[in-house]
Specification:
The protein is an alpha/beta fold and 305 residues long. 41% of the residues lie in helices and 16% in strands.
């Protein structure tokens, strides 16, 4: 496992490396339906693609936006998609059906519960896997990542194999998983919310997304599937989500999982890191992600090679 000191060294190396590589122009394809079967949601069963021009078989980053599982908008994630595509990485910004969020807005009173979000992500992965040659990215260099609730879903889809298995795929198609600023143990997340906002708020929020019982929480928690994790992971947190990532990291360390890289960014808050990744012309944190993808794709050598 790598610690923050190694990451500090890597950030300097990444910056120097990034200055030397080509910046690509990109093409964008929006509102691609990835599923049109029973229960089709015309607003959310869609994805956007950002593709680097002139790159043969680039890696694909499947990106799941944040929004508390309830107000995720794939179109708001296009800036970060463009930033990675300009560095030679294809990006799919994936939508999924949404949960109620009356705790935020009384009009958000309809929606789905876990595991429907993960079922949608698996459907999107199936579409992207089947259409690699059509869009020109590599079938063998697929990564999954996301921010906040999207970070949780990225970790879950890479750890609980049932969703991809139901689509005729395996989680082993992923070369890496990059959960960013998420919560990975739902009971722990519930307890934190109950302490800070009251049990009624926590019941409403977590219950609307996962169900009301501890068993529901466990089924939706990546921490419940640590024994099945085999994918290299880059785990990133910021000030507000450090407690959740720290618990996840501790559980992984207890299992002596040796494909883990961790970056805790204590100078930025939750929204600030998302803005940094999305809008900053030169983000050292985005470069860490880029480096992880390219090392695990064999595009640049690993420091151990």
């Amino acid at each position: 496992m790598k610690n923050l000191f190694l990451f500090s060294f890597m950030l300097v190396c990444n910056w120097a490396y990034s200055q030397a590589i080509t910046t690509y122009s990109v093409s964008e394809l929006k509102d691609i339906p990835y599923y049109q079967g029973a229960g089709y949601d015309s607003a959310n069963h869609k994805l956007n693609l950002v593709l680097p021009r002139g790159v043969k078989n680039p890696p694909l980053l499947i990106w799941i936006g944040g929004g508390a599982w309830s107000y995720v908008n794939r179109n708001m994630e296009m800036d970060i998609g463009r930033k990675f595509a300009q560095k030679g990485i294809a990006v799919a910004s994936v939508g999924h059906r949404l949960s109620p969020a009356t705790w935020k807005d009384s009009s958000l009173n309809k929606g789905i519960r876990h595991p429907e979000h993960s079922i949608d992500i698996a459907r999107a992965v199936k579409y992207l896997y089947a259409n690699a040659s059509k869009y020109g990215y590599s079938l063998n260099k697929i990564f999954v990542s996301g921010y906040s609730s999207g970070g949780h879903l990225a970790a879950l889809i890479a750890m609980d194999n049932q969703y991809l298995k139901n689509e005729g795929l395996s989680k082993n198609i992923f070369k890496g998983v990059i959960p960013i600023a998420g919560a990975y143990d739902v009971l722990h997340y519930y307890q934190v919310l109950a302490k800070s906002n009251g049990s009624s708020f926590a019941d409403n929020h977590i219950g609307s997304v996962f169900g009301p019982t501890i068993q529901d929480f466990e089924k939706g928690s990546p921490t419940s599937y640590i024994d099945s994790l085999s994918t290299p992971m880059l785990l990133i947190s910021e000030t507000n989500t450090f407690k959740y990532a720290d618990l996840f990291e501790t559980r992984l360390r207890e299992k002596e999982y040796n494909k883990l890289e961790v970056l805790h960014i204590h100078r930025l808050k939750h929204g600030e890191l998302w803005k940094e990744l999305s809008y900053s012309p030169h983000s050292i944190y985005r470069e860490v992600i880029e480096d992880f993808i390219k090392r695990n794709s064999g595009i640049v050598p690993s420091p151990t090679q």
